[in-house]
Amino acid sequence: MSTPMHCPGFEANKNLSSFSCKCPNCGKLVEIFSDEFDRPHVCKGCKQAIDFTKCTLDASA
Predict the structure, then answer these.
(1) pLDDT for 1-15, tens place per residue?
(2) CB 39 within 8 A of CB 23
(3) What residues pair up with 29 in beta bridges, in sequence order?
(4) Is there a domain that residue 29 lies in?
(5) Domain enclosing residue 20, as ranges
């Protein structure tokens, strides 16, 4: 029996990108992955819903 080289689900997630941007409400840095843009998000700082169309992009990885 051989040991797998990667975790289960690796193939489905290996092309994801992560983005960091500032919350448009409070300025807290928020990280989001490319497969999460269509999901609702709440800022951990101000607890407000985040509209990523109004978020300024600071960095990407």
Answers:
(1) 566 676 666 566 667
(2) no
(3) 22
(4) yes
(5) 16-60
Q: Is residue 4 part of a domain?
A: no
The reported pTM is 0.55
CA distance 58 to 52: 12
Q: Is the dihedral of CA 51, 53, 36, 29 positive or negative?
A: negative
Tell me, yes or no, whether 10 lies in a domain. no
* Nearest one of 35, 33, 38 to 53, comparing CA atoms: 38
Using a pLDDT cut of 70, give the percent of the chain over it.
62
CA atoms within 13 A on the CB side of 34: 9
When divided into structural domains, the chain yields a total of: 1
